[in-house]
Design goal:
Elements: H1 2-17, H2 22-33, H3 41-66, H4 68-87, H5 92-120, H6 123-150, H7 153-173, H8 175-180, H9 194-199, H10 204-231, H11 237-243, H12 245-265, H13 267-286, H14 293-306, H15 309-315, H16 317-321, H17 323-355, H18 360-382
Length: 386
């Protein structure tokens, strides 16, 4: 039953990834149809991220009150409602309204399942968990590309909404599995350190800044890859929607591979390796060539480099700060991550609109340096030689 429950958790993480790449891949068509500036995507992503920050900060208390399975089930249905809401939206304000439940649902799922896997499963499962998130993000741009080519972007959200609904129903059917695994679950009564207490733990602030920086660069790449191909490489909107999946392909393949080697190398080494690969991908974007072939390779390599960083930072949290503190700290980590996704991609939209989207590699490199500096400080302070 323990393995079957893990399979359900993997499937739920596909549902978390499915909507994440829809906005970026669909926005070149969405902003034209809605007669909006390209920069308005930042306001939608910001609203989603605000919801995720709130639910992430509340996740530890909610889990201890009603359990992981209940939090995840409710949250998936929130995202289902949001996706169908997007599919019927004909005004900008409607996108903003439905972005709220999507953010609330996504943040709770992310924090709850990341903490559950960090506590109860090995390093490889954390990598593979986020590999399944990547599967969702890979599928969505192709769905959106098909919808934009044959119908409208509304249909893309509608198709993903039905897929999400199916996963939500399967989650409900799996609830007995969570009860049977209760002895190994986080439903045991635990005393929470609380948000303020977690922030006072030595090393936590550096960890939060590092995680903020990583998620900022990942989200910026995720949201603006399609627009980069359109604005810089002069590719059609339909083709760019499919090319947006390149980053997710690299991310997913990288996480699948890292699952086999993380237990041997350890979280810290995998973060350093990923950073080196990520930097190589960014350097490819600097090359002054008109062909978009190097850009294709760049986004794949950036995805490969990003692959181990997120899961390794999360998985190392209980080792750094203790299992009794991990729930609260991972909740704050998710909040810091979503603050990064709230503020940094919209800021890039404004900068790119003002001076050109060719600035993307410089922008990403700044956050790579900040991320690796802060995570290394965390490992040094906690004396974790993982």
């Amino acid at each position: 039953m323990y393995g079957l429950l893990l399979a359900v958790i993997y499937l739920v993480f596909i549902s978390l990834g499915l909507p994440d790449s829809l906005l970026g891949s669909g926005w070149p068509a969405m902003h034209v149809e809605l007669n909006l500036s390209v920069t308005y995507m930042g306001f939608v992503s910001m609203t989603i991220s605000c919801g995720t920050v709130v639910s992430s900060l509340l996740s530890d208390k909610l889990i201890k009150k009603i359990g992981t399975s209940a939090v995840v089930s409710i949250s998936i249905f929130l995202t289902v409602g949001a996706l169908f809401g997007f599919s019927f939206s004909s005004r900008f304000w409607m996108l903003i309204v439905f972005a709220i439940p999507y953010g609330l649902g996504a943040g709770a799922i992310d924090a709850a399942l990341n903490n559950y896997i960090a506590l109860h499963y090995k390093e490889k499962h954390m990598s593979w968990l986020h590999c399944f998130w990547g599967i969702g993000t890979i599928v969505s741009p192709f769905i959106m590309g098909y919808a934009v080519t044959n119908a409208t972007w509304h249909e893309g959200y509608r198709i993903v909404g039905f897929i999400q609904l199916g996963i939500a129903i399967l989650m409900l059917l799996s609830l007995p599995l969570w009860k049977r695994n209760k002895n190994a679950a986080d439903d045991k009564p635990q005393k929470s350190v609380g948000l303020i207490g977690a922030l006072k733990i030595k090393g936590v602030p550096f960890l939060l800044v590092g995680f903020f920086a990583y998620c900022a660069l990942e989200a910026t790449t995720m949201y603006w890859a399609s627009t980069y191909f359109v604005e810089v490489k002069k590719i059609s909107v339909e083709h760019a929607a499919n090319l947006a999946s390149l980053f997710y392909i690299g991310l997913t393949v990288g996480r699948f591979i890292s699952g086999f080697i993380t237990e041997k190398t350890g979280d810290r080494r995998m973060i350093v390796i990923g950073t080196c690969i990520l930097t190589c991908g960014i350097i490819l974007l600097f090359l002054p060539v008109n062909s978009y072939a190097f850009a294709i390779a760049a986004f794949i390599v950036i995805g490969l480099g990003c692959a181990p960083i997120y899961p390794c930072i999360i998985h190392s949290t209980p080792d750094h700060f203790g299992a009794e503190n991990s729930g609260a700290i991972i909740g704050i980590q998710m909040a810091s991550a979503y603050i990064g996704t709230t503020t940094i991609p919209p800021l890039f939209g404004l900068i790119g609109h003002a001076i050109g989207f060719t600035i993307l590699p410089v922008y990403l490199l700044i956050f790579v340096v900040l991320m690796i500096t802060m995570t290394e400080l965390t490992f040094h302070i906690t004396k974790n030689k993982n």
